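User: I'm curious what two different proteins look like when written out as structure tokens. Can you demonstrate?

Assistant: Sure. I'll show them one after the other, since each token string lines up with its own sequence. Here's the first protein:
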Amino acid sequence: MSDPDHRHGEGHGWEDGSPERLYVITGGRSGSLDSAPLDLVTLIVARSAPGPGMQPEHAAIMRMCQAPLSVAEISAYLALPVSVVTVLVGDLLTDGDVLARAPVARAELPDLALIEAVIDGLQKL
């Protein structure tokens, strides 16, 4: 008896994020070649359009990052694990195809005493 859900030659397990597909996409690597660490909020922006002959996942990242996107957003849009996306983005960084930058830091709140002094001064006007 054969299992109807396990048919050979029909791509079973290939397009669904299987470990085999993820292994092929990353070339068996679990980390990027670049020494710069990428985290979930690192913003990625493409320097140009994807080139001919690029791996489909690399090209997809290049297309979607014409405007800055975080690593977490790229992962969600591609439906790939963050670990895989960091390898792919690392490849693109190494090749100079994308730029990575830290997200814009939150502005520090001014000193509370300064705010109170300004309010006090405005009330006296």
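Here's a second, unrelated protein for contrast:
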Amino acid sequence: MKVTRPMLAAAGAAAVFALAGCGSGGDEKAAVPETATGSLEHLAAEVKCKPNMQTDADEIRQALCKNTDGKFVLATFATDRGQAEWLSGAKDYGGYYLVGRKWVAVGQEKTVTALQSTLGGTMEEGSAHMNPGGSHNNSGSHHG
């Protein structure tokens, strides 16, 4: 079976929902280091997680990770275009994304914020309008 970008984006988005619970976001802002580069294994080692590989294809490598900061998805891409297309599809599902050059970490806001203190990168938030019943991106809309 050929792995297509829409399939990968859907898989990434499904992982976001599996990992994302409603949580309160912190307002702590630490100094952001220079954005890390390297293989999926190198990035995982930087944040002290043992990657559980989910996708190992030429265009994308994606793993589930867990460290003291929480659970997250770590993905690396062969090309900038592949990364951009994956992000475009995945962000429709909401969630929090830490974006570096040819890599993305996806998880709860507090987890992704903590990863940023080691990996650098740019924090991005997915679209809230695609989350039926309320967005996990707005902690004020969750009751429970």
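A detail about the second structure: Residues 5-19 form the longest helix (15 residues).
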